[in-house]
Amino acid sequence: MPEGHSVHRIARQFARNFVGKRIRLSSPQGRFVDGAAMLDGHIMTDARAVGKQMFLEFDHGLWLRVHLGLYGAWDFAGDIHANGTDAALRNRRRRPIARVADDQMLDSAGEDSLHSIGAPRLTRLRMAEGEKVSIEPDGFPPEPIGQVRVRLLADDVVADLRGPTACVVLDPQEVQVAMDRLGPDPLLDDGPAAEDRFVTVVRKKPTPIGRLLMDQLVVSGIGNVYRAELLFRAGLNPHAPGKSLSDEQARALWRDWAHLLKIGVTTGQMLTMDGLGDAAYGRALRRRADRHWVYKREGLPCRVCGTHIALEEMAARKLYWCPTCQA
Q1: What residue ranges are annotated as transmembrane (predicted)?
Q2: How would residue 102 be classed by pLDDT, with cut points 50, 70 and 90?
Q3: Of 224, 55, 72, nearest in space to 146 by CA
Q4: What is the pLDDT of residues 12-54, one digit of tens each?
Q5: How far from each other are the two terminal CA atoms of the chain, in whole angstroms?
Q6: Catalytic site includes residue 317
Q7: Model confidence pLDDT, tens digit, residues 202-254
């Protein structure tokens, strides 16, 4: 399932390439005909992500809410430009595996957000948990591929959505209700109020912290990868009740989530290992096996203590953790 960094990157793709343009909506698959008709021909005025959900606003006040779920993905094609938030990188001198700043990471393989979120003219860009550029389509707009729930088409760009858990049209009141139900997202609000909200909820709950981090009503955007990595980085047992955490531990979790989310949005990768040298950093960007502490490392020795990484199920998802470092 795409985690928070992917959805924020997709929302920024829409903000950069679709907002301000008149959009033609259709449902090639036929399952969203009525919803597409409600938005067809209107100008997109906003695009925002809250955790794992994305909201697209149109000039007549209606919104399109999309939750990709386990199988959803967007394809972009046409005159796609890089994420506008990365414009400052264009004027910087690039070098392989360079660190421009803590929140602006580049690599020689083009896996930073300037390249992986954008695409050259008339190429197709897949955006889900793994972002991959596929073959060039023949002409514009390209024919829909697969079961496209909804197509958003402007004069020069197109976005196709397939396999979402949710794809619905909402009015402003319904959008506000949907957003208010979600837990805080540090990319939308990294102030003390959002942090306090997270800390207060966590420290009241007898629920294991490994479950709380996956609850989108507690905190937005954390999925299976970030859950495992955040808990390892904090040295927390995933079975520890939320109310057993100290105030300092809960606040450190929130701040580390904000830190990792920012890196994920910038690089396009769930890079959770800090302090890497240039060679290790390059490997981490290229290979998932080299970018995580515990995720998908079951049976392998812990990178810190050598204990075999454990695998079990929690909240209907696989949980990876070190029984020694997280005792």
Answers
A1: none
A2: very low
A3: 72
A4: 999 999 999 999 999 999 999 999 999 999 999 999 999 999 9
A5: 28
A6: yes
A7: 999 999 999 999 999 999 999 999 999 999 999 999 999 999 999 999 999 99
Count of Cβ atoms closer than 10 Å to residue 14 Cβ? 24
Using the Cα atoms of residue 287, residue 292, residue 296 and residue 300 in order, give the sign of their dihedral.
positive
pLDDT at position 81: 74
Annotation says 96 is catalytic: no
Q: Reply yes or no on whether 2 is catalytic.
A: yes
The residue from 3, 111, 131, 229 that is catalytic is: 3
In the annotation, is 143 catalytic?
no
Alpha-helical regions (H) of 172-246:
172-181, 192-204, 209-212, 224-234
238 neighbors 277 (Cβ within 8 angstroms) = no
Q: DSSP per residue over 22-91, as a string?
A: EEEEE-TTSSSHHHHHHHTTEEEEEEEEETTEEEEEETTS-EEEEE-TTT-EEEEEES----GGGGGGGG
Interacting residues of 293 by C-beta distance below 8 A, sequence separation 6+: 228, 229, 232, 233, 272, 273, 302, 303, 304, 322
Q: What's the burial of 234, exposed, middle or buried (CB within 10 Å: 0-12/13-18/19+)?
A: middle
Joined together, the tokens standing for residue 168 give: 């619905």
CB of 201 within 8 A of CB of 194?
no
CB neighbourhood size of 135 (10 A)? 8
The active-site residue, picked from 2, 141, 142, 238, is 2
Largest CA distance in the chain: 59
Tokens of 181: 């139900």
Burial class (CB in 10 A: 0-12, 13-18, 19+), 179: middle
DSSP secondary structure letter of residue 208:
B
- Return the amino acid letter for 15: A
User: Which candidate in 9, 16, 52, 65 is catalytic?
Assistant: 52
Contacts of 275 (CB under 8 A, 6+ apart): none
- Sorted by where each starts, the structural domains of the chain and their CATH numbers stand as 4-82+117-178 (3.20.190.10), 184-321 (1.10.8.50)
